[in-house]
Every structure is written in structure tokens, then in C-alpha cells.
Amino acid sequence: MADEFPKFTAAAVQAAPEFLDREATVDKACHLTAEAAKNGAQLIVFPETWIPAYPFWDMSRPDAWLELYQNAVEVPSPTTERLADAARKAKAYVVIGINERDAQTQGSLYNSLLYIGPDGTLLGVHRKLMPSVSERMIWGMGDGSGLHIFDTPLGRLGGLICWEHEMTLVKYAMYARGEQVHASVWPAWTFQRDHIQFGMRQYAYEGKGFAVVSCGVLEGGAVPERWRGGNSGEGWIADGGSAIIAPDGSYVAGPVYGEETIVYGEIDLRRVAAAKREIDVAGHYSRPDVVRLLFDETPHSPLVAADGPGHAQQLYENGQAVVKRPAKRTRSKKT
Length: 335
Known about the structure:
Layout: E1 7-14, H1 22-38, E2 41-45, H2 62-70, H3 78-90, E3 93-101, E4 109-116, E5 122-127, E6 149-152, E7 155-161, H4 168-176, E8 181-186, H5 193-207, E9 210-215, E10 217-219, E11 236-245, E12 251-257, E13 261-268, H6 270-275, E14 306-307, E15 310-311, E16 313-317, E17 320-324
Parallel strand pairs: 1-2, 2-3, 7-8, 8-9
Antiparallel strand pairs: 1-13, 3-4, 4-5, 6-7, 9-11, 10-11, 11-12, 14-15, 16-17
């Protein structure tokens, strides 16, 4: 009997958060997750740093940063438990952008993607590798340990955040590990319209996979007046563009602009296999004898314990640092 390939409905959520209000935004996330599942979605993707908001303000302002910090998400936490419960009730994979507060240092924020399974399991977190331009005043940088590809019943699932899609070698690392379904998340400033669409059509075409593109929407009036920096508060700061794109670069659904909605589309992995017949950029259409990619997926922790004369050996299990101390030396008795 021939192998069967998954076919399912994906949902790209295009909605505004309850600006800088973590609890209210999580309430909205749970509601939208339930709505998408009711309409048959088994994969539900939310925009970049959706909880509690993308920082649409003067990013140098410490008062705004502090309010963002107070509403950020630790992993795990009661907030992630609520999101996990919503995914469990929906029986769907959920990928959602969060402002992540580092639970260890209690100081840094990260632009992160949280992956949740249909049984409510927290599958992993991806921290944006390189915040763009003034974003570096808000977020730290992730490392290769969070560049996940999850082997799921829906196919091999991965994701990137905004301008990570311009990091050529990072894209290749996703393709080379067999990504089939890609969660692409953006804040969707109005000036990004063309950038997002041609970039994501190219990503899907080049990698021969499906891209579920979730873009934010936000009207200027949602940003407190004291942080607008000359913005009148009228009109859209971010106007969406959510879409689902096939392996040949064509649109399955969308793009949609200027409204809160959920974009639905069918993912049929037979189309991935068929598309790779002509080009598989990390397979038969590669030349590893000429060029190859070195991929470091080791977590880079700022703290490595040491004990006595020998440094501790730092290992990693399930993405967490595990410090193994060297065995104590015993002196043999002289005879």
C-alpha cells in the first residue's frame, strides 16, 4: 500500500492584541484558538510578539519598556498553562508570538515563538536570532538551540520571525532539516506589505513547503498618546497581509489587509513531495562538495559552573543545560 500524506486546515490569525495587557490578550488568544478549531483548523498561528504587543512606539523609552516587561511571558508560567489548555481543548497545534521574560536572569526580554501541541504540551520556544534595527533596544538574541523543526502528524513544522526570513543561511538550515510547514510571523507595519509577500512567496517556493503567514493589525489609537512620537493615532500602524502560500509560491488563501480576521487554507503535503521533484535545495539540487552549512544548535548559556581544579562539563538534555561535575580524584595509599 502506498504511503498517505497529511491533509489538514491551517489558520493564520490576524488580530490586534489587547495592547500591553497580558491577561486580556491571553483571553483573546484562547477565544480565537477555539474559533479557529471550530472551523476545522489543526494548526493555528498568531503574529509576532502578539502577547502583549509588538512595541509600536519610540523603542528608546524606558517607561514603555518597563510596562512591556511587566506584561511579558515567562516559560513555563500560569500564562503558558492557559494557552496550553486552549490548545488542548482545540486539539490543535498553536504557534504564538510572545515577549518572553527570561526566567533565569529576570532581566532580559526576547522576541519568541511558543510552540504548543494538541495535547497541551509545550513543545519548545524559538528566540529571534537577530532583532532588527531599533528592536535591539528591546530584545536579546537567541541561539541555534531554539531553531526547531518538530516532526508532527501534520508534517515537519518550523517557524521564523519577521526579518529572520532574510537570513539566508538560517533559511537553508530550515530547508535542510526537511521543513514542510512553516509558521511565519510579522508585526506587519504598513510599509512591509510588498516585503512580506514577495519574501514569503520566495520562501515557500525555494523551500518547497507551505508557509502560514500571520501578520499583525493595530490602529494608531491603541498606542498610548504619550508614546506615539508624533503619530496622530489615526489609521493603521499595522494593516495585516496574512496568507497561506503553497510550495509553488501561489496563494492558497489571502493576503488580507485592513481587518481583524482568521485566514484559513488547506495544507496538502502531497504538493510538497511533488514540488521537490524539480528542486530540493538541500537534497538533489545541492552541491555539498562545493558548499555546506555549519549549524550550531548548542545552547549558549552565560553561566557554566566550575568545581575545583577541573571545569564542570556542560551537557544539554531536552534543551536544558545539565551540569555534570568531574569525578573526585582518590589518592592511592602507598605500600
